[in-house]
Amino acid sequence: MPGRLAHIAVAVPDLDAALAHWRRLPGARAGVAHDLPGHGVRVAFVDMADSRIELVTPLGDDSPVAGYLSRNPAGGIHHICYEVADLDAACAGLAAQGARVLGAPRPGAHGRPVIFLHPRDFDGCLIELEQAP
Fold first, then answer.
1. 128 is catalytic
2. 9 and 129 Cβ atoms separated by less than 8 Å
3. For residue 130, what are the β-bridge partners?
4. Domains in the chain, please, with CATH?
5. Following DSSP, what letter does each residue of the chain receive, concatenated?
6. How, if at all, do strands 76-84 and 126-131 pair?
7. pLDDT, position 3
8. Does residue 118 contact residue 102 with C-beta atoms inside 8 Å?
9. What is the CA radius of gyration of the chain?
10. Residue 1: predicted pLDDT
11. Mean pLDDT of successive 10-residue segments in the chain (133 residues)?
């Protein structure tokens, strides 16, 4: 059901400092940071030859990422995102198998609908599904 790995998200306490760190990797191309108020975060993507990292920091104390950083002050891997051909069908199929779909689809960093799956259903890993272009 999931398609290609879209990105791995890393929660960071300081987005500018994190961008500076990731830019040191050979071949890394860092994008421009922008706010996603609907998700309560500020994000920037770092593209590499065959992968993409999403750096994410909270916009406020009520952000889910703020909670993550309170437990992991140095930051760390927050979620893994997969593209799916049909987000609604993927959610319905996963829910039918007992996976907990968190909330309703909403626009993600690329303007396409995204949804999250409960980490307890995936060995402690928060999964994001993104509608493929």
1. yes
2. no
3. 83, 114
4. 5-131 (3.10.180.10)
5. ---SEEEEEEE-S-HHHHHHHHHTSTT-EE---EEETTTTEEEEEEE-SS-EEEEEEESSTTSHHHHHHHHSTT-EEEEEEEEES-HHHHHHHHHHTTPPEEEEEEE-TTSSEEEEE-GGGTTT-EEEEEE--
6. parallel
7. 84
8. yes
9. 15
10. 58
11. 88 97 94 94 95 96 95 97 96 95 94 96 96 94
d(CA 46, CA 70): 24
- Tell me, yes or no, if the pTM score tops 0.85: yes
- Which of 54, 83, 128, 130 is catalytic? The answer is 128
48 phi/psi in degrees, rounded to 5 = -130, 180
Specify the residue for token string 């993409």.
52
**Nearest of 94, 72, 100 to residue 9 by alpha carbon:** 72
Q: How far does the chain reach from its first CA to its final CA, in angstroms?
A: 16
Rounded to the nearest 5°, which phi and psi values hold at 90? Answer: -60, -45
